[in-house]
Design brief:
The protein has about 120 residues and is mainly β. Helix content is about 0%, strand content about 50%. It is built from no helices and eleven strands. The chain is globular, with a radius of gyration of 14 Å.
Length: about 120
């Protein structure tokens, strides 16, 4: 079974930066798109960023210009560089991965990001 493990969440002051990582293991097939969602307390999970295997990215409007997604296909790892963090970015961040022959994405367990004002 494919497993995704996130890391890098922390408590940071507004204006600071964090880098999240997510490693996928036990993958038999090359991973298609990967990315990040987040869920704040009392809110629905929302898309943050996606990145295709070829490196094409897509971002939520709220993070454009501040967050950058990247990936290392050889390491089955996706990253999220988050700059100029705002208190509104406080959430649990989840990575996902879509693999061939699977109809549903795989998810990590989440990593907490807290931005203090």
């Amino acid at each position: 079974q494919v497993q995704l493990v996130e890391s890098g969440g922390d408590l940071v002051q507004a204006g600071g930066s964090l880098r999240l990582s997510c490693v996928a293991s036990r993958t038999i097939f090359p991973i298609n798109d990967m990315g990040w969602y987040r869920q704040a307390p009392g809110k629905q999970r929302e898309l943050v960023a996606t990145i295709t295997r070829n490196g094409y990215t897509n971002y939520a409007d709220s993070v454009k210009g501040r967050f950058t997604a990247s990936r290392d296909n050889a390491k089955n790892t996706v990253y999220l560089q988050m700059n100029t963090l705002e208190p509104e970015d406080t959430a649990v961040y989840y990575c996902y991965a879509n693999l061939p022959r699977y109809t549903q994405p795989f998810w990590g367990q989440g990593t907490q990001v807290t931005v203090s004002s």
